[in-house]
Amino acid sequence: MNRTSIIALRVFALVAIASAGVYAQQRGRGPADHPAVTVAGRTYTPASILARNMGTTEDQETQFPPHKIVGNVYYVGTKTLSSFLIVTPAGNILMDSTYERNVPTIRKSVEQLGFKFSDVKILLGNHAHGDHQEGDAAVKEMTGATVMAMAEDVPALQAMKPGGKEHPIDKILHDGETVSLGGTTLVAHLTAGHTHGATTWTARVTDGGRAYDVVFFSSLRAGGTVTPAIAAELDHAFTVVRALPCDVPLGDHPAEYDMQAKYAKLSAGGVNPFIDKAHCLAEADIQQAMYHAVVEEQKAAPPAQ
User: Fold this and answer.
1) Phi/psi zone of residue 110: left (φ > 0), alpha (ψ -120 to 50 degrees), beta?
2) Does domain 31-300 bear CATH number 3.60.15.10?
């Protein structure tokens, strides 16, 4: 092959890659870098929020130091994908298995904290996306845990079959139902919009003789196109989360509650940085502002030809 042909092939490949990128964005596989909103002095776009949440592939797979958050709630996830362990005398609850390839890392974190992975009796999830619940079948295989899911997310979960594995669902939950184990009770709040069954979990835990309301927020991020049905879901979701009692805000991505900065403060002692009532709605403020901006941009867009 002569030099001219090689150059032509390279140019063709670059054009194809660029075209594929544009096509992927048009198909909703990657968010646009607009609109922009400024909340609490920081500017965000859909693309920057996704990048903040997901980081690199390495971030998604790299263990973050497992640590106690408050009471019987522990962090056992990666740098950018949250997984929480709720420890009780009757066994433990795991929230969010993340990607299947991360399950061994989650197990390692659980064991480094001094607990047995086999003691996971219940597996919960925030919403039916692979980065949060793809590993459910692997956790089920390793622990025998009862897998519970919000009814509205069941179809999406059933379509999630890593390696051909059927997605386990042992109990279907509905808005307002509780999950109890060993004296700890979690309440499932349907906060749909990101997925139809996105679930924000709440629990009241005790630490140092004081009770705290912990909120495990699901994503409130609007997708590419906000239909009237999704708008209705998001309007309901924001109303729900703004009414929840909250002392300890957590999220399905650590960046949503500034985990790394708070973790860095733990070694200094003093007040627990995860007890952060003042910032319970910080992420909701960002996502609601972005949701409204997306809707306004859609209204202003010229009609499709």
Assistant:
1) alpha
2) yes
Which pTM was predicted? 0.89
CA distance 67 to 272: 12
Tell which residue, 102, 197, 216, 100, has the closest CA to residue 156: 197
The torsion defined by the Cα of 9, 12, 13 and 14, in degrees rounded to 10, comes to 130
Provide the 3-class DSSP secondary structure of residue 84: strand
Question: Whose CA is closest to 126, among 149, 107, 99?
Answer: 149
Listed by start position, the domains of the chain span: 31-300
The letter for the amino acid at 161 is K
Residues 10-24 have pLDDT tens digits of 333 332 333 333 333
DSSP for 196-222, please give it.
TT-EEEEEEEEETTEEEEEEEEPP---
Those residues whose C-beta lies under 8 Å from the C-beta of residue 142, and which sit 6 or more positions away, are 103, 107, 117, 118
Q: Which of 289, 101, 131 lies closest to 195 in space, CA to CA?
A: 131
Phi, psi of 217 (to 5 degrees): -70, 135
Could you give the dihedral angle defined by the CA atoms of residues 88, 90, 95 and 100, in that order, rounded to the nearest 10 degrees?
130
| Tens digits of residue pLDDT in 213-249 | 999 999 999 987 899 999 999 999 999 999 999 999 9
